[in-house]
Protein: Aspartate carbamoyltransferase
Organism: Dyella choica
Amino acid sequence: MFSRLRHLTTLENLPRECIERLLDRAITMRDACAHGTRKLDLLNGRTILNLFFEPSTRTRTSFELAARRLGADVINFDIGFSSTAKGEELFDTLHTLEAMHLDAIIVRHKVSGTPDELVRHAMSGVSVINAGDGNRAHPTQGLLDALTIRQHRPDFSALTVVICGDVKHSRVARSDVHAFTRLGAKEIRLCGPAPLMPDQQEFPDCKFYNNFDQAIEGADVAIMLRLQKERMSSIELPDEAAYFREYGLDSRRLAMAARGCLVMHPGPINRGIEIAPEVADGPQSRILEQVGNGVFVRMAVLGEMLAR
Amino acid sequence: MFSRLRHLTTLENLPRECIERLLDRAITMRDACAHGTRKLDLLNGRTILNLFFEPSTRTRTSFELAARRLGADVINFDIGFSSTAKGEELFDTLHTLEAMHLDAIIVRHKVSGTPDELVRHAMSGVSVINAGDGNRAHPTQGLLDALTIRQHRPDFSALTVVICGDVKHSRVARSDVHAFTRLGAKEIRLCGPAPLMPDQQEFPDCKFYNNFDQAIEGADVAIMLRLQKERMSSIELPDEAAYFREYGLDSRRLAMAARGCLVMHPGPINRGIEIAPEVADGPQSRILEQVGNGVFVRMAVLGEMLAR
Amino acid sequence: MFSRLRHLTTLENLPRECIERLLDRAITMRDACAHGTRKLDLLNGRTILNLFFEPSTRTRTSFELAARRLGADVINFDIGFSSTAKGEELFDTLHTLEAMHLDAIIVRHKVSGTPDELVRHAMSGVSVINAGDGNRAHPTQGLLDALTIRQHRPDFSALTVVICGDVKHSRVARSDVHAFTRLGAKEIRLCGPAPLMPDQQEFPDCKFYNNFDQAIEGADVAIMLRLQKERMSSIELPDEAAYFREYGLDSRRLAMAARGCLVMHPGPINRGIEIAPEVADGPQSRILEQVGNGVFVRMAVLGEMLAR
């Protein structure tokens, strides 16, 4: 017996068994697709709306594919991305969409906490799924990263993960830490230049590094974050080549990690800035596997929330 | 026996029995959805195209949902909204779309009369549905407003309606007047500042007011129109607060209307400009019911036009 | 026995029997639609993605309709058209899409050769269909033009075709020449102002003209190309009226062609620049037939590539 997920805004308070159930479901989805099933009819007649206030073709497409593979209809609600969409105006949009009898709203918004605000203001049975809010959370990314790791390293209690880059502004890093912590990871290391590192009190159970050589030592998984180039000016490193020297993942550094260390990145990658091409395309790279798992994890989340 | 609707560009000349049939159909659609039917297959294999020359995410989404709930495919033909799209260029686009064997084109255009131009130039059996043209007509809005009223006040012959705001530039007001007149409303009152009021000869059967306190007295329904903020400069009121004092609907004014007066608005609302938050969110507000009815009315229109 | 088409980037090396098989399939599709079949289920469960780096509502819509009529799902991957999307960045996008298990990618890109680059870099079984690349190829346009001609003039060996306008920059002209040559056309004439004509060595089997009166003499088919108005400055003709006088198709010129000469244009047409309204709308115009055939040809291509 379990209580079904109603909304998914963050992994922060999700019980371990719920995370594991979603990962198991994702595997079921993957296996069905691998055996030639092109389309399940779990969500026939359901309607899911993409409400993206920040552009993200990749994540939107991944959700759209997941929903359609389950037989749902998908509506892209094309907000002008310049729209501020906050406060009452945002809630009026929510209520309007609810009045149209949608089953789920997938929301991306630059302001942290917006998906929870929508949950608090929802009047009907609509489900809210966070596709990324500000620096705060990107829960399906956390799940797909956990799934990718679990396929290769099933025992999280033996796992050392390093997350490197602009951790401070990264919702991916936060959702990863939530997922891996809940699944019992042995050690999570956060690494980046000081101005791009969060407060240590936000992550009391993680180890902090500014030196990537030290951070990657013996790691089983290295997750490289995308560097927003506009952040370059705020850090002391003069240019992209310098960033790569200090925080990029190349073959030399990868050799310092544990044997067979998994290389991951939420994409899209900046080659030669946070990751060397030979590592991104090398045998230890799981980057494209992450993309494939993203669709299965989103199928799992939508299926759990919306199937009758 | 009745002649099936081929196109819907305005309610102006629609017979009363046709309007009533569409409202009855909308109720049938609503009841089917309320009893758990998620999808009808009335329009399986039909293709409907959204041709919006003005942006309108809400109306487009409502039509898209309606069409998909009936099993139709929907194509969004993304015209650059800067495109002038008039004359031969517009008709060439129409003929191109007809040559692709679409079943219906839903059109919104800032130039009044464009949908009728398309009907006149159509060469095939394609149906044209007006989703709003200039100041002229927004027939599905008129129908959904009539449906919303009928659910609460079935006897139109006893009905006093006040429509308040920028009546002059409002296609909603025009389609409402057409629908309510045809359905036999006892009295329709139009109210707004003089520069935003139409010529009286355009609405010979309506009563005209510049004073909202007088206009709302005893009304059974109050329809508040959205104020385009760029119109502010053309009227004598110095600012939004002044507009709200003169023409906004607040609790004090609502108390002057008939008991249980229905509060309606085509959305999106400007809180504190044309309507007070406590009225918009209050027990007499039918605004979200209007949104829900919009989908059912559009299902009714598409079903009548396109079902075999 | 034949080898099924895997990708379609150009008609240049397509065997005649393959072209003819695709045209035959297109006729089968057309006949099924003519007999009331609204939807085939040939591609149920398949997912096709539109990857357009240049805007083209008409071609995208034609592909989308074709795919949906065969029961496939269609995803529009909305690239910002300002994106340069080249080199590794483009291939990373390709690999990301492949990792999502798409069945086909329909690509339009301003750089010639991009679809072949995608074929070369594809890692999975995804099919690539060129919807127009630079000046190089627009293979489904070539097929639909061949189909339109074949319906009226089945014997290509007796056929004289003139293609007039900006041949130099036209991917339509190139794909037309490839198709008609392969199908055994008797004579292909290319005509335009000198600065808009390609090198003769690129088209060794075509006849070159700068005088349209001479080029159209006795032609069975006249294909008028769209003039990009921004090209006006590069040619010696001072304005649109002068271009029309020299290279436009009007009734006088059409009378010099063979009796019943087919008038074709890939659209959208510039009335009074490359074609006179009375010719575009006249009895010999096949322009709208081309549009309809475009959907059937694209159904044929998708069906051949993706049906199980």
User: Anything to note?
Assistant: Strands of chain C lie at 47-52, 73-77, 104-109, 127-133, 160-164, 187-191, 207-209, 221-224, 262-264. The interface with chain B takes residues 33, 37-39, 55, 57-58, 61-62, 64-65, 68-69, 267-269, 271, 277, 288-289, 291-292, 294-295 of chain C (CB under 8 Å).
